[in-house]
C-alpha cells in the first residue's frame, strides 16, 4: 500500500486537534468537554462527563462487503454528478448551518474478459454532511435527492480485545479502519502513530484515537481520552502494535422522517396532523415537566404517550434521556426540544410524519441489490450514510447500468485493451467521458469522505485534471 509516506507527511504537517474536534462535534459539545483521568485497565474511558453516552456493544458490530477497499489511482471529479446535492447549505433548528453533499464512489473495480466488474461494496452513494449530525436538533440530510429529517438512532461502542494493528493493511473495529503509520520513536514520539478512517472514507486529521498503555511508565505516559476511539497498548514492534483493547463506534439503526409536520410551541388541545394522521396535545404539566400526547388517525386515538422534558448537558447524545423525550407510533414521531421544552408558553417540540426505521444493512430505498450503512464518527455522531451494492456488478462495453433506482446511470463507453472509457449520467446531465487504465475507480463529489479518500492516497500518482475535477 502506498499510503504510508503521504499519511505520515499529512500527520507531521499537523492541524490543531481541538479545532478538528470542534468541527466534528460542534461548539456546544466541545464546551462541555472535561477530560477524565485515564485508567489503562479500562477498555473504554468516558471522554465526557458524567459517563459513557452510548452503550458498549457486547456483540459484533455491523460491517459490509468491501469495507477495506481503497480506490486505486481514482479519478476525482469534485464537481460531482450533475443534479446531485453539492454544498447545499441547510440550517437546523439550533441555528447551525451545515453544507450537504451527495457523492458517488467506485472502488475495487477491474477488467474481466472485456467487461468491467465491480465487487460487492465497491460502488456506493454517500450522503456526506460537512460535520456531525444529531437527533433533537432539527437535523436533516439528503438521500438520492430527497430530504429526510433525523429523528433518532441507536449508536454503540465496540470493544475488541487483543487486536493487532500493522502497517500496510486495515484492522476493522466498529465501522472504523485502523492501520499503523509509524511505530514509537524513543524519546521522540512515545506513542505509535495510528491512522483511522470510516468505511466510506472519512479520515479526520489528526486522527481522534487516544492511546494508553496497559502498563504506563515515565517513558510511556497515558493520553487523556478525547473520543470513543481508544486503544490500550499491550506491546509494539517496528511493524505492528498489539492492543489489549481497541474501540470503534457504529450505528445499528436510524429513524428518518419524510416530512416535518410541526416545529415550535404547542398548546394544550392543539391537533397537529396531515392527511388525517398526527397527534393531539392532551395535557401539559409544568410542575412535573411532562406532556401527554395522543397519536390519532382520522380523529380516532391510536396510542397515548407521556414525555418528560429534561435539561441536561448530555443531551442530545444521551440515549437514555432521548427515550424520555421521543415518542414514535407508526409513522409519526413527537420529539421534545432538548432544553426548556416545557414552560408557561406551552411545549416546544417537533412532530414528524413518514417516519421509518433504517436498519443497518437493510434496504429502505427502492434500489435493487442496494443496502444502507450509516457512518458514525469517533464520538458516535452520524456523519454520513452509504447506499452500496450487495452483489457484484458486471457491465459490458456500450452498456448502461441504472444506479440507485435510476438516480444515476453508469455507462461503459468502450474498452480498448486495458483502457476503459466511462461516464455517469443523471436526469440533469452527464459527467465528462473519463478514461482509466485497468479499472474505473473514481470519486464524484467533494463531500467529507472525498477529502478523506484523497488524503489517504499517495497523490503523487494521481493526475488531477483541474478542467475536469475542480468545481468552477
What report would you give on this structure?
The protein has helices at 3-13, 17-25, 27-31, 319-325, 448-455, 466-469; strands spanning 56-57, 75-77, 86-91, 97-106, 110-112, 115-118, 123-127, 140-143, 146-166, 171-173, 176-182, 193-198, 210-213, 230-236, 240-266, 271-274, 277-285, 290-297, 300-308, 326-329, 332-336, 342-343, 346-359, 370-376, 382-389, 393-395, 400-403, 408-416, 419-426, 429-430, 434-437, 442-444. The chain has 6 helices and 32 strands. Residues 1-40 and 464-472 have low confidence and may be disordered. The protein folds into 2 domains: 1-255 and 364-472, no CATH class; 256-359, Tick-borne Encephalitis virus Glycoprotein, domain 1. With 472 residues, the chain is mainly β.
Produce the secondary structure layout.
Layout: H1 3-13, H2 17-25, H3 27-31, E1 56-57, E2 75-77, E3 86-91, E4 97-106, E5 110-112, E6 115-118, E7 123-127, E8 140-143, E9 146-166, E10 171-173, E11 176-182, E12 193-198, E13 210-213, E14 230-236, E15 240-266, E16 271-274, E17 277-285, E18 290-297, E19 300-308, H4 319-325, E20 326-329, E21 332-336, E22 342-343, E23 346-359, E24 370-376, E25 382-389, E26 393-395, E27 400-403, E28 408-416, E29 419-426, E30 429-430, E31 434-437, E32 442-444, H5 448-455, H6 466-469
Parallel strand pairs: 1-9, 2-32, 13-14
Antiparallel strand pairs: 3-4, 4-7, 4-32, 5-6, 6-26, 7-25, 8-9, 9-15, 10-11, 11-12, 14-15, 15-23, 16-17, 17-18, 18-19, 20-21, 21-23, 22-23, 24-25, 27-28, 28-29, 29-30, 29-31
In short:
The protein has 472 residues and is mainly beta.
Cα-based radius of gyration, to the nearest Å: 24 Å
Strand content: over 45%
* Tally of structural domains: 2
Distance between the termini: 33 Å
Roughly what percent helix? under 10%
Amino acid at each position: 500500500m502506498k499510503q504510508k509516506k503521504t499519511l505520515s507527511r499529512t500527520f507531521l504537517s499537523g492541524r490543531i486537534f481541538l479545532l478538528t474536534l470542534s468541527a466534528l462535534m460542534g461548539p456546544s459539545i466541545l464546551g462541555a468537554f472535561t477530560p477524565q483521568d485515564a485508567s489503562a485497565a479500562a477498555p473504554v474511558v468516558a471522554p465526557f462527563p458524567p459517563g459513557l453516552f452510548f452503550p458498549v456493544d457486547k456483540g459484533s458490530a455491523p460491517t459490509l462487503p468491501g469495507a477495506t477497499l481503497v480506490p486505486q489511482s481514482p479519478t476525482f471529479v469534485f464537481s460531482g454528478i450533475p443534479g446531485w446535492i453539492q454544498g447545499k447549505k441547510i440550517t437546523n433548528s439550533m441555528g447551525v448551518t451545515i453544507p450537504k453533499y451527495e457523492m458517488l464512489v467506485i472502488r475495487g473495480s477491474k477488467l474481466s474478459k472485456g467487461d468491467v466488474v465491480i465487487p460487492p461494496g465497491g460502488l456506493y452513494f454517500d450522503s456526506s454532511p460537512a460535520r456531525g449530525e444529531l437527533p433533537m436538533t432539527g437535523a436533516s440530510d439528503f438521500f438520492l435527492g430527497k430530504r429526510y429529517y433525523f429523528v433518532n438512532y441507536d449508536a454503540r461502542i465496540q470493544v475488541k480485545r487483543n487486536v493487532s494493528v500493522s502497517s500496510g493493511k486495515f484492522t476493522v473495529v466498529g465501522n472504523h479502519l485502523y492501520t499503523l503509520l509509524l511505530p514509537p520513536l524513543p524519546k521522540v514520539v512515545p506513542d505509535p502513530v495510528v491512522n483511522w478512517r470510516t468505511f466510506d472514507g472519512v479520515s479526520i486529521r489528526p486522527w481522534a484515537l487516544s492511546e494508553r498503555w496497559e502498563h504506563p511508565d515515565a517513558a510511556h505516559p497515558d493520553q487523556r481520552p478525547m473520543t470513543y476511539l481508544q486503544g490500550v497498548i499491550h506491546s509494539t514492534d517496528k511493524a505492528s502494535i498489539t492492543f489489549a483493547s481497541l474501540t470503534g463506534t457504529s450505528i445499528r439503526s436510524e429513524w428518518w422522517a419524510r416530512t416535518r409536520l410541526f416545529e415550535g410551541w404547542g398548546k394544550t388541545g392543539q391537533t397537529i396532523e396531515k392527511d388525517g394522521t398526527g397527534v393531539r396535545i392532551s395535557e401539559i404539566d409544568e410542575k412535573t415537566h411532562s406532556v401527554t400526547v395522543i397519536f390519532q388517525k382520522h380523529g380516532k386515538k391510536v396510542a397515548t404517550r407521556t414525555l418528560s422534558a429534561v435539561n441536561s448537558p448530555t443531551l442530545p447524545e444521551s440515549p437514555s434521556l432521548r427515550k424520555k423525550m421521543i415518542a414514535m407510533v407508526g409513522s409519526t414521531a413527537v420529539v421534545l426540544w432538548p432544553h426548556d421544552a416545557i414552560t408557561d408558553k406551552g411545549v416546544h417540540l417537533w412532530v414528524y410524519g413518514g417516519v421509518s426505521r433504517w436498519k443497518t444493512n437493510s434496504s429502505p430505498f427502492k434500489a435493487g441489490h442496494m443496502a444502507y450503512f450509516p457512518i458514525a464518527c469517533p464520538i458516535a455522531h452520524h456523519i454520513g450514510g452509504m447506499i452500496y451494492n450487495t452483489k457484484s456488478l458486471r457491465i459490458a462495453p456500450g452498456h448502461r447500468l441504472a444506479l440507485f433506482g435510476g438516480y444515476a446511470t453508469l455507462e461503459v463507453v468502450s474498452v480498448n485493451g486495458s483502457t476503459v472509457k466511462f461516464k455517469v449520467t443523471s436526469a440533469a446531465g452527464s459527467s465528462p467521458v473519463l478514461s482509466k487504465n485497468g479499472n474505473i475507480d473514481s470519486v464524484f463529489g467533494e463531500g467529507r469522505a472525498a477529502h478523506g479518500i484523497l488524503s489517504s492516497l499517495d497523490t503523487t500518482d494521481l493526475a488531477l485534471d483541474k478542467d475536469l475535477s475542480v468545481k468552477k
